[in-house]
Amino acid sequence: MRSSLIFFAFFVSGIFAGLSGLLPDGFDFNRFGNYALYLLMFLAGVSIGSDKDSWRVLATHNYKIVWVPVSIVVGTMTGSALVAAILPSLTLRETMAVGAGFGYYSLSSVFITQLHSQSLGVVALLSNIFREVATLLATPLLVGYFGNLAGIASGGATAMDTTLPVISRYSGQSYAVVAVFSGIVLTILVPFLVTFILTV
Question: Least packed by Cβ within 10 Å: which of 51, 151, 158, 183?
Answer without folding.
Answer: 51
